[in-house]
Amino acid sequence: MRRMAQRIAAPVERFLHTETGSGILLLVAAAVALVWANSPWSASYDSLWHTPITLGFGEWGMTESLHFWINDGLMTLFFMVAGLEIKRELVEGELSDIRRAALPIAAAIGGMAIPALIYFAFNTAEATRNGWGIPMATDIAFAIGILSLLGSRVPSALRILLLAVAIIDDVGAILVIAIFYSAGVSLEGLAIVGAGLVFLVFIQRLGVRPGGAYIFPLIVMWAGLHEAGIHPTIAGVIVGLATPVKPWLSREKFVEIAEASLDEFQQSTEHAGGEDMMEPLKRLSVAGREAVSPVARLNAGYHPWVAYLIMPLFALANAGVNLGGVEFGMEHSSMVMIGIGAGLALGKPVGIIAASWLFVKCNLCTLPRGVTWGGIMILGFAAGIGFTMAIFIAELAFPGSPYLGLGKLAILIATAIAGIASLLLGRALLPRGVENSVAAKLSPADVEASTEY
């Protein structure tokens, strides 16, 4: 029965450990939202997300809609995972070395600037120009998921480059949200944020490990940012960036503790009748936990919840555009759709390709081994998949505005165009088994050098 259960669970576990699975679930959630919002039961879709929910106790309670708690509450964990990824990349990943970081930084900046300029070119009116940040965003899960559908055609260097570009894109989106899509800043709220941050640093200095203990300062900073007029999800980014990257136990120390614990375990089973077996096993378990960096451990713990619960729930709550209620004939409506759609589906690839070409031609960086200009083109279209972050910014840019539905519809159309284009280009430009064929021609030294990307 156990083996049968394992055989049944194995495909599910493999699905949950792939970005493709997350992307598919996002797509399904978005499709359900669209169908539901345009069905005879569309009223129940709207009423569900406006259901009031109170969290807190006594005078400290807060009553908001379910939609608010998803977008401003649960998405804080999404931003925390983004902060963890950014911290890891800055300290020991692709962004830790300026030579390796030059290309993804240039590509990401180009991929953010050109879409914003395209939007501005079509939307100079005061009523619509606030949406310039919408086409700047990339959805990491969807973009990586699309590349995963191409299988072995995609060189690992291209996947890593897309991840680095998407992470820098996230940094840009976070800064845009914090600076341009926040209300007037309250000093009292900032003081609360400062107190939460001081407490976080204090418990870190005491040696408190990341996990449940980080929830309290996270809530304090969330409340402070909400009070300050800054989008409260930024609290997640702060906690992510404040999480230590280095493990508390070095690899050598872990091996030393593990060997001693295993020796003691062996002796306890042979000579003591197994009475003292738990103590060495407990030390081994603690050592195993302390040998993993807090950033990696938190990321591994929260990523499945974010990828397979929070993001699909966000898509379900926000992708339900009632096409019958979208005011296509409204003034500037076509300009909003063109600005967002062209910014994502066209501006992203143009910006990424142009910036990358300029930096390579100026000898400021080189293409990673195994990545061609065709690969950069595929990356550009994959980065045009905005979805989660683009919809999030649209909610901030057009709160309660009739342009919100138009913006969401444009995001969905552009995401579909960019995703299909990247798939078709991948099948046309990338040969089958490209990694294996390239690796077979490389010497061991070349293979080691190729890990630069």
Keyword list:
single chain, 453 residues, mainly alpha, Na+/H+ antiporter like fold, 2% strand
CATH class descriptor of one domain: Mainly Alpha
Instruction: Report the mean per-residue pLDDT as an integer.
Output: 82
- Return Rg in Å: 24 Å
How much strand?
under 5%
Q: So, CATH architecture of one domain?
A: Up-down Bundle
CATH level-four homologous superfamily name of one domain: Na+/H+ antiporter like domain
The count of β-strands is 2
Instruction: Please give the oligomerization state of what you see.
Output: single chain
CATH topology of one domain: Na+/H+ antiporter like fold
The helix-and-strand class reads: mainly alpha
* Helix residue percentage: over 70%
Q: Please state the overall shape, judged from the principal axes of the Cα atoms.
A: globular
Summarize the structure in words.
- The chain has helices spanning 2-16, 19-37, 42-49, 66-92, 98-122, 140-148, 156-180, 187-205, 215-228, 234-242, 251-271, 278-290, 294-318, 333-361, 373-383, 387-397, 403-429, 434-441, 444-450, and strands at 52-55, 62-65.
- The protein is mainly alpha-helical and 453 residues long.
- The protein has a domain at 20-78 and 95-175 and 306-450: Up-down Bundle (Na+/H+ antiporter like fold).
- It has a two-stranded antiparallel sheet with strand order 1-2.
- α2 (19-37) packs across α6, α13 (294-318) packs across α16 and α14 (333-361) packs parallel to α17.
- The longest helix has 29 residues, at 333-361.
- Mean pLDDT is 82; it is low at 434-453.
